Description:
The protein is mainly β.
Amino acid sequence: xxxxxxxxxxxxxxxxxxxxxxxxxxxxxxxxxxxxxxxxxxxxxxxxxxxxxxxxxxxxxxxxxxxxxxxxxxxxxxxxxxxxxxxxxxxxxxxxxxxxxxxxxxxxxxxxxxxxxxxxxxxxxxxxxxxxxxxxxxxxxxxxxxxxxxxxxxxxxxxxxxxxxxxxxxxxxxxxxxxxxxxxxxxxxxxxxxxxxxxxxxxxxxxxxxxxxxxxxxxxxxxxxxxxxxxxxxxxxxxxxxxxxxxxxxxxxxxxxxxxxxxxxxxxxxxxxxxxxxxxxxxxxxxxxxxxxxxxxxxxxxxxxxxxxxxxxxxxxxxxxxxxxxxxxx
Length: 330
């Protein structure tokens, strides 16, 4: 496994002034982590920062928005990009979930400050405050229209909001524990949720009702992802005819990232298990790369790539010191 080169997250701010300093680390599995720093000494005639690194690290190309750093001892190099822009006034504490509308105009985010807000993606201007959950809001995402938001909270409630006037138009109740992740089926007539209660459920937005429990794992389900299954994959057959209220569930596979170190695939319409993979620690998140390949991250920092047609042939792509929390976009 390759070494991992890191720089502190606010490096561009740290290096925005002369003698500003940012910390570096280079970690290889099974070896002691190498630590160092980069320091800004001034500006060149064309306004590009003059950056030097401490022993063991080398600074390559530097621009106003990027810096290339290498660690020759581990034969690794990384280009770090400065943020395009920063919005510091949307939340007062850590952001726990964020999504951008399909058109790119709006953002929605939740925070440990207890708020959920909709804001302009161009300038960070707050447009709406979404209030109604009790306790923390764990997850939020836009529907494909970009006009509606789905959220789930520690109050075990799933809510649908209007992005235009901040009204809560639908509340789903049925989970017995906090909701940890959600997914939207096609255009959004049906949605999915997973919970600390160990279940993943399918909901009908039009009638505000639960269409069924897709899986009951007996262990918290930390994350889910929905994708179209490869035609060669056997998704099983439903024991009972699906409800006419189910729209777009055929041919879909639902991934479940479970606390009990298991990554599970379930046929969405059939409710039948497709595969079960055991990892090194609790699975926190999962995503589809294609109809056959998936990624999943665990609490101990591993990221697995699997082929859903044959999960015995997995690859460990990365090992870091921190947990894998979000392997991809929604």
